[in-house]
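Lab meeting minutes (informal)
Scribe: AK
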Amino acid sequence: MSQTKFNVRKVAVLGAGVMGAQIAAHLVNAKVPTILFDLPAKEGNKNGIVLKALDGLKKLKPSPLSNKDAVGYIEPANYEDHLHLLKDCDIVIEAIAERMDWKADLYHKVAPHLGEHTIFATNTSGLSINKLAESCPDSVRPRFCGVHFFNPPRYMHLVEIIPCVTSDAGILDNLERFLVTTLGKGVVRAKDTPNFVANRIGVFSMLATIANAEKFGIRFDIVDDLTGPRLGRPKSATFRTADVVGLDTFSHVVKTMDDTLPGDPWHGLFKSPEWLQKLIAAGALGAKSKVGIYKKDGKKMFVFDAASGEYVGAGQKGDDAVKDILKIADPAEKFRQLRASEHPQAQFLWACFRDVFHYISYHLADIANCARDVDFAIRWGFGWSVGPFETWQAAGWQQLAQWIDEDIKAGKTLSAAALPDWALQADRAGVHFANGSYNAAGQTLIGRSTLDVYQRQLAPARVLGEAVAPLGETVFENDGVRAFTTGDDILVVSFKSKAHAIGPEVIDGLNKSLDIAEDRFKGLVIWQTEEPFSVGADLQSMLPAFMTGDWAAIDATVRRFQDTSMRLRYSQVPTVAATQGYVFGGGCEFAMHCDKTVAALESYVGLVEVGVGLLPGGGGCKEFALRAAQEAKGDVLAALKDYFMAVATAKVATSGQEAQEIGFFRKGDPVVFNAYELLYVAKQQALAMAESGYRPPLKVKGFPVAGRSGAASIKGSLINMLEGHFISQHDFFIASQIADVMTGGDVEAGTLVNEQWILDLERKAFMTLLQNSKTQDRIANMLTTGKPLRN
């Protein structure tokens, strides 16, 4: 008999603090009606505490809300008047302060009001789930567990589920299904140990970095230069991360380790350094108090110097010799040189890696179910591009194990604890293998979860060492694209270019793929193996023609780009764009011309060509002119104005939902919260259209444009912006070109034109701008610095 489907109709979040409010925000992003509870306010509206939190959500950057209307679907409530509302909630998430006594008190209060099937979960970041369960009545304990979101909840992929001994297995599976598909999360099942998996190891890594920085005398800004993107970690690196998290919050997590892990061989390390305690006492808590380890004074940045107890000018970088070692592609050689170098910065880096490897191998048996969970937890919760076990395995397991062992015996490590026997086995090649990842407690390999929800992930996250065959069977490939099928009559096209930029090979490959799809397949999906979807046209590929002034060749390239957009629109098979990450310029234009877009929530979408002094030349201006005509209720100009501003100001949508609000994507197209499900959903959409008797849209015979009077009206407001010094003379020139194209050129208002008419105007204006010296300066600046130039 099949299991009963688990429907989540409504969720309650208890606690409107930083995490509670943002968890509620992400729930309503996903269209889950949510009630947000807090204490009754002492004066005024009794929901005042929650209302203030909801107001705060609107001001946060990056925004926890994915569309402007979402916050209206959070219902404010307080514990005095509204506990009866809990009975209709399928999940209740407690997210109050990290105090066992406060949580216990709240559980006694809310338990009688929970529905008989309600899942009750705590968002604690480190308290014992089994201990908390003791405060729940017997009837609730099978439905109680930990569900640990990472901050900020919209953007951090990781959620840890922590069962207690009484948790019902079916309840945990249902919660995982909901978290993975509805909220788009990467779930790791953690053991009930202090700080669980990610914080236990991630915070240890930060503490080890702080200790080693002191030992080798490395300044904090140099530590951050060396331990950020150079190691495949976030830009905030180590000390900036502490500032972002909040020095008081970081110190609290450290104290939890100090209080609850007395037997840990590294226990002596679980103390906030004296300099950190002094900063906290002085109210320097990091980003939230505008001063922490770093502080800004005017335009100057300062960093705290622990040795002197003073702030000093920030911005020092790691030594070039050490940075050169970090650039070595072969991990084994990189680690060999780090360990052999006598440079204190190299010794510091080796020590940081070694101490983390030492810690995770020693504790694997008691912290996590297998090594894969450790690597995913650190990748998804701390933003590392490669997990710590993967790093060790890639660099040669046995050689590193031997070096770590030698350092332990020489007394160089932060603890004298011996490496576990399994890590030193003579035949050990690593912890991740084709048939699973190592479970140290049971000394077995554990395969991937077989939960049905993961069948939707056709290209899931992988760890190094897993068996990964190329996805599908290649049908066609050139230097620009790979087109493949997984045997379901849909042809999937992925770009091979850097950042999936669109150059001649991509355009040729896409056209060839459309030929093949029309001949042999039911539909075509454009999907990239990793983000971004596309950063737009490959300007680099135009450089040779640009340098020699071969304008005819560039004009032909732009025409071919436009023709490819139009082929996506009028192909004999349904076309679907599956977007995630940046969907800029030509990438946005391709998506706009497909029959459907399936967007990952984190799709950042815009026609950003004005940043390089150009206008959208692949059909973007045409598409907005056409949509304005189709939406106009007798006034084309009124319908066009917002579209014009989106192009002229290079407006970027910060979510798939906002892309629909602005009009880059169509309202009603699917927005997928888990990017690993994108391909599955896109293929299902293409198949559904094909099975419904798909026919390409009929070519638009003629549509009305705003004409020269519409252009004049737009230019009038541009002149005001120019005179107010909001835009430069060249900005005015570019925007005027865009206005002329989108209003249909030198014709009367209401004149009927076809798509090709606007495409020709678009291409002509593109070429005019390309030959302008100020635009050429903007392009050169973007290609050399990667930053836009305002001239």
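Next up, CB showed the second protein from the same session:
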Amino acid sequence: MSEIPAKATESEDPSDGAMNQAAEAAAAGDAMWQSSPPGSIYDYIRVASFSISPGGLVDQWSLRAEQLFGIPAARAVGMDPIEAFIDPDLRERGQRKMAEILDGREWTGVVPFRMPDKPDGGRGEEGLAEVYVMPTRTAEGDKAAVCIVVDVRTLRSIETDLAASQAIFGQSPFGFLLIDTDLRVRRANERFASTFGGTPDDHRGRGVHDYLPRGEAERVAATLRRVLETGQSITDMHVTGHLPGSEERRHWSVNLYRVHSGSGRPIGIAWLGTDITSRRAAAREAAAARRNLALLNEAGARIGNSLDLETTARELLDVVVPGFCDLATVDLYQGLLTGDETPPGLTDGSAELRRVAFASAVSGAPFAGSGEPVEVGAVHHFPFNSPCADALRTARPRAVPPEEGGLVQSTLAVPMVAHDTVVGLAQFARAKGSEPFGDRDRDLAVELAARAAVCIDNARLYRREHERALILQRSLLPPGDPEASGLDIACRYLPGNAATEVGGDWFDVIELPGHRTALVVGDVMGRGLRAAVAMGELRTAVRTLALLDLEPAEVLSALDEIARGLGTPGGVQQATRTARQPRDADLSEVYLATCVYAVYDSVTRRCTFANAGHLPPVLVEPGEPALMLDVPPGMPLGVGGEPFEEVEVELPEGALLALYTDGLVESRDHPLDEGLQAFVGALTDPSRPLEDVCDHVLNTLDTHHGEDDIALLMARVQGLPAESVGDWTLPREPRSVGRAREYARGQLLSWDLEPLVDTTELLVSELATNALRYGEGEIRLRLLLDRTLVCEVWDSGLVQPRRRRARDTDEGGRGLQLVGLLSAAWGSRRTPRGKTVWFELPLPGGEAGLTDPAEALLSLF
């Protein structure tokens, strides 16, 4: 309690009792003010008291008077209040009023006042005071007065603020509570009462446990205590409860702040609450929409990255679990997986399905859905009357009733529909404790299943095309163990896997007359069935051109024209027309291909190469490191207009020749040069069996099998031994025919081929006679023994022999007919200096039998 100021002057007359009583009353009033409880009206209004002596001067001055007027007691005691505080114009009237008061009259009025001028010369503050003057008497009976002064402006401000506070508190659209320090409601507004029932007075004295569930009430009470203790405000605290008599869950946003009295002492907590139930519902809807949109975006990014049916189904479950549901399965029609042309589609729902994917975010028994649990990979079908069968039958989603006592509370069976065809069924389930599926969830499930279904159907169509292309591609490749004269052959072909399309890689081994062999490796640029078909056409064209015994460069030139015609509606038939197009014509429909074509002669061990934009062959000579042959690369087939060059290389005995496609050495993970060097480095031991060499290369190189097709053709040189070759040059004279027969007979007898002597003599005689009659220059006879017997007659004439059918009356013209009847094969080819006519006979003991010469002669007549 503040000390009450002592009187500035003390009366020397002890009989002055009235003045003492007034002073004591003023002091008592000041003491009451000092001891007034926090939060009383005196904390907020400016009120003071002082007393006036019988002489009209101030004789007591309270502390509140010091604060109100800014004049200390030492200065105020003994002052004339009229002279000190009243405006000069009103002093005369004030003197009259003071006389009346001292005469025993009470007076109440509003008096303007002015505080003393400031020490710095500034004019004192002016105010308006409501004064209540109460006459009194001193102990001696003299008339005196006690004055109570209230600052009118402060009082009016308080009245205005109080009225505004009452309006705000009462008219607020928010629930407003004033909670005291015991956490009890001291006051509630109409809005709060209208929400929770009753009148505002009915809520007085209640606590948070009267409004909220126990757990929530404990949390809120702890928060209220923390606000009361720390003074820290709480903004947007979410509170959940139920309205009286309702099970509907409501949500409020509550702001809390501590309330203080005028002296600064905490007196309670203000509670401002807003019902945000609808806002929370809208926010949940918006959040659900955003979540669903994000889920659809994720589905678009993650589903369909693979062209594998099972992988696509697993990608769907990776998206939905746990973001959309807790458990999920995917079943696809068994016919779809086994490669049927068309899936079952809208059937009665009882067709066989295979479970291809399952995902779960909860632990427990396998998800059964409708019926008994099904393991991944198992083939099953749904009962006709089940919701799943109905979903398959109608192509509409169905809700599956939960199993009693199971871990699932809500399940959706959603048909997977692509292009108006049902390809399978997806089941999405939520475990107990999760929110059941709603209409929005159903729509989202249908959209997710449809996206996955389209990807699965695309994968099905791709798989079908891929398998057809692969069948076509493999049917066009040579058999697994091709044979060639003077060469040991090994080959590998690795098609792209299901994740990549079939390419146009091919290789071929073509036997040519004279125990020569054409080795071919090519690659049609592009993928898919069309590339495989183009590859087949080019391979067929290569074989046809090879049998014409054209030079390698001529073969590639013809192939170039054919490749330019593959993209036209007329196909190969349009090749010539396409070749005549200008060089700047549109090449969008032109198939491009690379190819290397080599012809190996087993007699001379010489190999002639021509290249059309393909990777260079690799040669490994015995005892030497592998190297890439310097073969002019040329332009790819289909570009047109550029000539192809040839390179002839003599291959030593035991040398290893490797032809390959870019899938072996090219990858996204390393440059082509690095792959080529790795391939060359892998050919370290060419003496090993060729099959082992092929396996070593594929195992050593980082082939990334599946990125592209891989074709590898390896050949080891095994030249025809000198003792297997008979070669004679004869002058151009009639007796050379007889000598040719003698040389042939002697050579065959030395080879122990006596059964072939008669036939060989007859055919050699015919070819030598034709060379003598129709050819030019010297006659050359060559016999070659390998897996068959080949006889060649060379001359310098350019005119090719032509087989014709002789009439019965003709004396000649039956020689080539006889050759065709007695030999396994025959033909002619151009040479740099003329032509060669040849025939081939199978060796005795082979599957092909020999034709008797006498019977052949008789058949001609």
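CB comment: The two ends are 156 Å apart (CA to CA).
No objections, moving on.
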